[in-house]
Amino acid sequence: MTDTGVTDTAVTGTAVTGTAVTGTAVTGTGATVHVGEFRAEVRDWLAAHVPAEPLPSVDTAEGFERHREWERELAAAGLAVISWPAEYGGRDASLLEWLAFEEEYYAAGAPARVGQNGLFLLAPTLFAHGTREQRDRLLPPMARADEIWAQAWSEPEAGSDLAALRSRAVATDGGWLLSGTKTWSSRAAFADRAFGLFRVSPGGRPPGDPPLGGPAPQSPRGPARKPRGQAPSAPGADERAAGKHEGLTYLLFGLRDPGVTVRPIRQLGGETGFAEIFLDDVFVPDANVVGAPGEGWRIAMSTASHERGLSLRSPGRFLAAAARLVELWQRTGDPADTATAQRVADAWIGARAYQLHTRATAARLADGGTLGAEASLGKVFWSELDIALHETALDLLGPRAEIRGERWLEGYLFALAGPIYAGTNEIQRTVIAERLLGLPRISRAPRAAR
């Protein structure tokens, strides 16, 4: 096991597991011992099952299916969605257990999670805003990787300014007809389904309509249980926004449905991790609307908080990379090069700091806090840490860094996208300034003609 330098400290108060808050406390030495036992179980399983050779890239057709097979192996072992309730294939794991799992997963060099859009973004949204019927229908095949989801938010003229999207949803008998174009849709080239935002046309149902199909049916045991650790959505400026934020609806659709055309986007390295999605009167039943029509922006911000916060980029990713960087320095570094040594140390410290920050976030959630605008702090930090860490490694490698297939080079090319996806860092800094620091809002009024 790679020593993380931080013990599995107990979280007191309301238990937080994986991605939603429940009411069981995690306190004291017993909880720490339990997390340690779970960590050992995960470490042993990974040591026995992680492929000896890296799988083909997830951004190729062959690699995508190989990663799907790996997800099914995780699911069979009860390790695919440990934070979810057992009824959906999870283990009701605590947030500390999930963080421990992530640390061991990355330390073992396990394959990328091909289902991450569904597992870490859509699933928390369904637990918070979906109906019981939607959870029962969508979560089990998601956990087994029978259905892998793409994120279909960005459009040709709506990237960081997501609310500027133009794709439409027009009400029809029993559902909606979707039209428009989505771009830079991650995993869409080979995925099965997608989730996205669409603007309700003037003839559509009014935003004030109740959730389609009526209230979510209740389990005999009471309200639907959520995986622990998910922050309740905090009300903020996004929920009060007017104009272009109104009338957006959160919809789910199949990437092989009639009227859907997927066009892969070939990247610089020749692979297709993204795609354009063209929709021509694609029928989506009412059962695939998440929340109420017109409430899509509020629900999307719930998804975004997970993308920027705990779910998508856990500390384990950066702890493992920092450990590899230290090893690279020990093998190839020049002790007289104190400047590079300092950069290595900074990367190591940054990874530890992010780990401690995440644990503090876990404690705050356990005390009833929310994961709101604070998620922007983490997003800016980890995305810039990722680039700095990989740039240091490339400088240590020298000319060898440019060899095709070099792991550090491929990681660097991916890290460059970090300040862009999940909302550009420029947007995140504006969120931090306005919503956390209370600075005056930027005037967005058009400049007067000169």
Brief account:
The protein has 450 residues and is an alpha+beta fold. Helix content is 41%, strand content 15%.
Question: Could you describe the 3D structure shown?
Answer:
The protein is an alpha+beta fold. It has a domain at 147-213 and 225-303: Butyryl-CoA Dehydrogenase, subunit A, domain 2 (Beta Barrel). The chain has twelve helices and ten strands. The protein has helices at residues 28-49, 61-76, 95-107, 116-129, 132-143, 237-240, 296-308, 315-332, 338-366, 375-397, 407-415, 425-436, and strands at 14-17, 20-25, 149-152, 168-172, 175-186, 193-200, 248-254, 260-265, 274-285, 289-290. Strands 3, 4, 5, 6, 7, 8, 9 and 10 form an eight-stranded mixed beta sheet that branches. Strands 1-2 form a two-stranded antiparallel ribbon. Mean pLDDT is 81; it is low at 1-30 and 206-242.
Going by CATH, the homologous superfamily of the domain at 147-213 and 225-303 would be Butyryl-CoA Dehydrogenase, subunit A, domain 2
Number of strands: 10
Helical amount: 40-55%
The secondary structure category is alpha+beta
Q: In CATH terms, what is the fold-level topology of the domain at 147-213 and 225-303?
A: Butyryl-CoA Dehydrogenase, subunit A, domain 2
Low-pLDDT runs of 5+ residues are 1-30, 206-242
Query: Mind telling me which CATH architecture of the domain at 147-213 and 225-303 this is?
Result: Beta Barrel
Tally of contiguous helical segments:
12
Q: Report on the biggest sheet.
A: 8 strands, mixed
Gap between N and C termini, in Å? 64 Å
